[in-house]
Amino acid sequence: MELQLFKLYHNEREIDEWVEEKSKKEDVLQREVEKKDKIEEELRDKKKEHGKLVRELGKIDQSIKECVSGIFLAHISIENVCPTVFGVVRSSVAFHKTDFCLVCSSVS
Fold first, then answer.
1. Cα dist. 40→17, 54, 91, 100, 101 in Å?
2. What is the Cα–Cα distance from 89 to 62, expressed in whole angstroms?
3. Contact in structure between 86 and 79 (CB atoms under 8 Å)
4. What's phi and psi for 86, nearest 5 deg?
5. How far apart are the first and last CA of the chain?
6. How far apart are CA 40 and CA 38, in angstroms?
């Protein structure tokens, strides 16, 4: 009988130790789960921010393309509508540029 009581006592102590160890491991697990949840939330926020920035970048790229194509089309339309005037203006600018260069070189 004493032997059985002795075994029972030690079994209960061992069970208590296991329960305590299990409790500690559950606490560690809970802290890790909370860390994981926090990191996942940060990741979702970063992904949202990234998506917003990508959309904004796309809008900026589109507006740049529209501006460039508008400038190009305006240049083409000026040449097509008034080719003689455009040619005169171009040659006049070239003439004045050479005239300015001659004046600069004579001053030096």
1. 34, 21, 65, 67, 67
2. 32
3. yes
4. -60, -40
5. 124
6. 5
The 10s digit of each residue's pLDDT in 53-63 is 999 999 998 88
CA–CA separation, 105 vs 100, rounded Å?
A: 9
Provide the token pair at 86: 């455009």
Query: Mind listing the pLDDT tens digit for each residue in 68-99?
Result: 777 766 655 555 555 555 455 555 555 454 44
CB–CB of 61/68 below 8 Å? no
Structure tokens at 104: 């600069």
For helices 83-107 and 2-81, what crossing angle results, to 10°? 90
Give 9's DSSP letter: H
Q: What is the pTM of this model?
A: 0.49
Round to whole Å and give the CA distance between 51 and 57.
Answer: 10
Tokens describing residue 57: 């970048």
SS3 10: helix
3-state secondary structure of 107: helix
Residue 95 to residue 87: CA distance in whole angstroms = 12
